[in-house]
Amino acid sequence: MDDPVLLTGAGGAVGAAILEGLEDAYEWKLMFHSPPAEEPDHEYLVGDVSSEGDVAAAMDGVSAVIHLAGDPRPEAPWDSVLENNIDGTQKMYEAAVDEGVEKFVFASSNHAVGSFETDERTPEMYRPDDQYRLDGTELPRPGNLYGVSKATGEVLGRYYHDQYGLSVCNIRIGNLTRGHPPIDYERGQAMWLSYRDCAHIHDCALQADYEYEIVYGISDNDRKYYSIERAKEALGYDPQDNSAHFDGEERVAEPEP
Ligand SMILES: NC(=O)C1=CN([C@@H]2O[C@H](COP(=O)(O)OP(=O)(O)OC[C@H]3O[C@@H](n4cnc5c(N)ncnc54)[C@H](O)[C@@H]3O)[C@@H](O)[C@H]2O)C=CC1
Ligand SMILES: O=C1O[C@H](COP(=O)(O)O)[C@@H](O)[C@H](O)[C@H]1O
Question: Which of 69, 95, 200, 247 lies at 20 to 30 Å from 47 by C-alpha?
């Protein structure tokens, strides 16, 4: 990819994972919400995704986008997800069409499908021997308004793909935690996404050829209720980490060679 890749939400956790893993792999154009504490090594701007002008400036000259910016709180109120997540994402897609962007990678979430975790299925579905899987073909089933905003982002992508031809990849990110899986949290261990697997799946989403995809972004955990088969097939995702290889913060087993 010769043109710059726009990374919104560059100052956040997912942005850090992507930049740490792929710093030199792309010519990045970073969008921050507020001025970064340290001067970045890449082109950057400060702006708000709910501002048409800021978004147009961010999109200028890029051919691919990883759109992370938004309110990530599962308990976020409607006003916030409406402005930051839904309106912001629509403005990003509109500007992407105007700029002729080819590829749009959207940070969706496990919370787009949170209501599949019913009282009848939990906690068994979080355990290694349970075979229940969501694979991305199911309809969204959010468990909160944040999840509604992520499901809406996926549908916006469907529209902009079908009507304007952008390649769109929605990554339903699980639980990104640095260094080790969440501790004493079965659900979080089942949807753990390590930092290196996070960088890798976004690299795959920038490199692969596809039309419109919904994939789960988790490591290859023994515990899982999200299938990673579609991410493997459509993107060539080859995760290295597994929450079962950890005892608390300690890695106790290495990945298979
Ligand atoms: N961290 C995780 O485990 C997961 C994250 N995600 C999604 O990934 C994305 C990134 O999440 P994190 O890095 O964890 O969150 P974060 O809060 O660390 O980063 C989000 C960034 O977006 C920026 N931002 C928020 N509203 C903005 C606006 N209106 N205009 C411009 N920038 C804005 C914030 O300043 C922040 O730097 C979010 O969309 C979140 O919903 C989805 C599933 C799991
Ligand atoms: O979408 C998100 O999901 C992760 C994991 O969800 P949780 O319910 O286990 O906390 C969350 O940490 C992150 O903030 C959110 O954006």
Answer: 200
Question: Which residues partner with 89 through β-bridges?
Answer: none
- Which CATH number characterizes residue 181's domain? 3.40.50.720
What was the pLDDT predicted at 28?
98
Is the model's pTM score more than 0.95? Answer: yes
- The CA distance from 205 to 207, in Å, is 6
Which of the listed residues 67, 68, 110 should we mutate to test ligand 2's pocket, taking the one with most ligand atoms within 8 A of CB? 110
Is 84 part of any known ligand binding site?
Answer: yes
Stretches in the chain below the pLDDT threshold 50: none
| Three-state SS at 217 | strand
| Number of folded domains that form the chain | 1
**How many H-runs (helices) and E-runs (strands) does the chain carry?**
8, 11
Q: Indicate which residue's Cα is closest to atom 21 of ligand 1.
A: 9
Report the phi/psi class of residue 123: left, alpha or beta, with left for phi > 0 and alpha for psi in -120 to 50. Answer: alpha
Amino acid at 97: V
Please check if 146 is assigned to a binding site: yes
Q: Count CA within 13 A, CB hemisphere, residue 89.
A: 29
Domain hosting residue 150, numbered range = 3-233
